[in-house]
Amino acid sequence: MCALTLGRNGIHPTPVVLGITGLLALVGFGVVEARVRDPLVELRLLRHQRFRAATIGSFVLGTGVIATVSFVPTLAQTGLNAGIWPASLLVVVWSGTSVVTAFLSRLVRHPMTGPVPIAVALVVVAVGQALGFGVTTESSPWRLVPSLFVAGVATGLLNALLGREAVASVHADRAAMGSGANNTARYFGAAVGITSFVVVATHAGDDLAAGWNVAIAMSASISLVGAGAVALAGRSSRHPRH
């Protein structure tokens, strides 16, 4: 995070050193996890398509739409001159819709499992994000409602899908590991995504609205690329044994 933040003004020794240090720490973590008897996460689980797809999906969800929505109040208040209540209610449109959708997903009779529904939901997320493109300083903050609503519907579906896949894709005695790995991927993605979104939005364009357009185009692209990555991750025919 420090490397991303400090690198916003160009490539300098400090962010480069921090970035390399972070990568080395990640490699070291992988080496240790592969050798210890009781690892935090079994890296071999990534060989299985459902676990791999769920992990990638959670990371992309955090990097994409969660990062986008986290910046909405800042855009509304600073870029569109909205008050605190409109800025707060905009986030409720997304979060409230996602909660309702996740709850109602239980009523779907046709089981939604595997990478394909995750990839489709990420595409819908990208569509919702794209609806938020084109904001200007003269725009009403309520212009973001359709974008947040569509993204919220897809996010709620993803919350239900990813949580179930994270547990169903591992052995029964590894359910906590599957859930923990999935949540870690989401929050790590959110940390990277929020940092990147803020850096781009506040440094691209002549004003915050222009920066928002650049950042949300980037974020929607991440969701689309992530959908493709999930689909590719599901091409393997290997499944874990229960």
TrEMBL record:
Topology class, membrane: Multi-pass membrane protein
Domain of life, per lineage: Bacteria
Annotated localization: Membrane
Swiss-Prot/TrEMBL keywords: Membrane, Transmembrane, Transmembrane helix
Pfam family of the protein (one): MFS_1
Presence of keyword Glycoprotein: no
GO molecular function, one term: transmembrane transporter activity
Assigned GO CC terms: membrane
Chief location category: membrane
Regions crossing the membrane: 12-32, 53-72, 84-104, 116-136, 142-163, 184-204, 210-233
Name of this chain's protein: MFS transporter
